[in-house]
Design brief:
single chain, alpha/beta, Nucleotidyltransferase, domain 5, 7 strands
Length: 615
């Protein structure tokens, strides 16, 4: 090799001594490199084809994190299906859709088996699609696992309480009346009438108004006071909030509606000025929060040299916007508004999801009022013990009135079955805190609830006796008493509930139920994606099947650990659209009040008088 004058790097010689003989094994590095080069080139070509598919069809980038997309690509890469041709559009919307629906039904059977032990809540909401067809949506949920049941096309129907009751009765019979714990709707007169009618026919089934909807109405009552002529006192106390909302909207609208102003703003901020739909929960809080986050960018915008030379169509308005943004007192109002509404926001983040929150609503309302009181008195520099605040008295009056209207026997019962509220730690955290059985009004509701649930005389007596022992702790094991402070409610009842056999069965049902119709509300964004301008000719049945398959595949995925961490984390959340800059903001991606507006996807939940929220 040395005499040849060069080294052949195309092959490497290895000596293999075996049985005294030398074998020469040649590894063709050149061939291997060629294969790797072709493989790399093929991957690049495939990446470009995938990218072209996404770009050409306007597919959100978060779809690349979808477990279903990754499963598809992995399967295609590892299978040997020579000559495979993807299904046609006709086959996708007919045969394959039916097959996928059957497969989804099989996947949901396991969740349905848990309904017999844990019970289930039926939640509902209304919506009108692009073709002006009204739909009523029904979802069954228990133990944080919602299942989409169906959507009823209510075209040509008068949305009366009797009509809505009939739909609920049909769903209840399909699910099984012994499994249903409650139905959850908005707190509208027609929904309330239908709920009361169902309670009359099925005393063990309770109607529960959506806690988030009730909270939103309370917030609306504070932020949108009556006119000066209607109630001068309320107007004087709260008109500044209404003025603040107008200012925020004017700033946002001025910037986005004037191209030059928007270009100057974009120089100083990557965050968009969110436009949140009127029907979104806590929409004002969302907008003001964003305004606070871009404060420095807004100030930089109006002090930019380009702004000084900027001549808008309405110069007076531009100057008014500049004066407002540079006004420290105006920003003080922004900070104060966000401070006293933060307890609302915290409660919304907890409630507006698919989690089991029925047992937390009662205590959360009290805690929220206490926190609001602290903020208001601190701002007004008053002593809570010795002074009064007219603004807080007004706010508290609205919150108490809303709670009295929306609270139910079932919420009181679920609250009383939470061991935490009998523990020493919780009782010591606030002045005046008392265990549920020592609250006269709460005790009355608890007894009434037990009497409705346990009709059998023997079971009724057992339930009352067991609740007396559970609430007082008489004869209770020391370990059970200590665990009330630290154990989650369900864990405590699983570990120590054997001493209260009848009450344990009730606790295991109530402690896994939701308090809101959030999972039903969010389903309309699915309809908005299916009933697009390009697909608005879909038949009603096919649209229902698409929503059924899409919603349940998405919900099944959310139940897996991979959704909370890993490569498919939060895959169904389009972070680019949400325009979030901090990872911890993803804690509210399940909540409809943090999402950008989607035209024509929501009922008018802010109007209490709107029957079913259907146009």
């Amino acid at each position: 090799m040395a005499s040849s004058g060069y080294i052949n790097f195309a092959s490497i010689l290895h000596d293999d001594v075996k049985g005294g003989l030398k074998k020469r094994k040649v590894v063709d590095v050149t061939q291997k490199s060629i294969k790797e080069s072709f493989s790399l080139q093929g991957r690049q070509e495939l990446d470009l084809k995938v990218a072209a598919f996404f770009y050409a069809n306007c597919i959100p980038f978060n779809v690349a994190r979808s477990p279903y997309w990754r499963d598809l690509v992995t399967y295609i890469a590892n299978c040997n299906l020579s000559g495979y041709v993807p299904p046609s559009s006709e086959r996708l919307r007919t045969i394959l859709l039916e097959q996928q629906k059957s497969q989804v039904n099989n996947l949901l059977e396991y969740q349905k088996l848990t309904w017999k032990q844990h019970g289930v809540s039926i939640v509902s909401d209304g919506w009108t699609n692009l073709q002006r067809r009204p739909f009523i949506n029904f979802i069954a949920t228990s133990a944080n696992r919602p299942i989409f049941l169906k959507a009823i096309d209510a075209s040509g129907e008068y949305k009366s309480a009797e009509y809505l009751k009939g739909l609920f009765m049909e769903i209840i019979e399909e699910v099984g009346k012994d499994k249903v714990v409650q139905i959850i709707t908005d707190d509208t007169p027609i929904c309330k009438a239908a709920g009361i009618a169902i309670e009359h026919d099925y005393p063990h089934i309770f109607w529960t108004p959506c806690a988030v909807h009730s909270l939103n109405l309370a917030l609306k009552g504070i932020c949108n006071p009556p006119s000066k002529e209607q109630d001068p006192h309320a107007y004087e106390l709260c008109s500044w909030i209404e003025d603040l909302e107008k200012d925020v909207r004017n700033i946002r609208n001025f910037i986005v509606n004037h191209q030059y102003a928007l270009s100057i703003y974009d120089k100083h901020s990557d965050l968009k000025l969110l436009r949140v739909a009127e029907t979104r929960f806590a929409s004002l809080i969302v907008m003001v929060k964003r305004m606070k986050r871009v404060k420095s960018a807004l100030i930089s915008m109006v002090t930019d040299d380009d702004w000084n030379f900027y001549r808008a169509d309405d110069d007076d308005k531009a100057q008014a916007i500049k004066r407002l943004i540079l006004d420290d007192k105006w920003w003080d109002k922004i900070f104060y508004f966000l401070a006293f509404t933060e307890p609302f926001w915290e409660m919304l983040k907890v409630l507006d999801c698919d989690n089991s929150t029925l047992h937390r609503v009662y205590e959360m309302w009290d805690t929220m009022i206490e926190k609001i009181q602290d903020v208001i008195f601190k701002h007004e520099k008053k002593n809570i013990a010795f002074e009064d605040s007219a603004f807080f008295v007004h706010v508290r009056k609205i919150l108490i009135a809303r709670w009295d209207k929306s609270s139910t026997l079932l919420q009181c019962m679920a609250h009383s079955l939470n061991p935490k509220y009998y523990g020493k730690k919780w009782l010591a955290q606030g002045i005046g805190r008392t265990p549920p059985h020592k609250d006269p009004k709460l005790s009355k509701n608890i007894l009434a609830c037990l009497n409705r649930i346990f009709i059998d005389v023997h079971q009724n007596r057992e339930a009352h006796d067991e609740f007396e022992r559970f609430s007082t702790g008489i004869g209770e094991d020391l370990c059970a008493t200590v665990d009330k402070d630290d154990y989650a409610p369900m864990s405590w009842w699983i570990k120590h509930g054997y001493a209260y056999h009848t009450l344990q069965r009730l606790a295991l049902r109530l402690l896994v139920q939701p308090a809101t119709s959030s999972c039903s509300e969010r389903n309309w964004s699915t309809y908005s994606q299916i009933h697009t301008i390009k697909q608005n000719n879909l038949t009603s049945k096919r649209a229902k099947d698409l929503v059924y398959v899409h919603s349940n595949l998405r919900l099944l995925s959310r139940n897996k650990e991979e959704y909370r961490k890993g490569e498919t984390k939060n895959w169904d959340v389009n972070v680019e659209d949400l325009n979030l800059e901090e990872d911890n903001e993803l804690e509210v991606v399940n909540s409809r009040f943090e999402e950008p507006s989607i035209p024509s996807t929501c009922s008018n939940v802010e109007e209490e008088e709107n029957d079913l929220g259907i146009d």
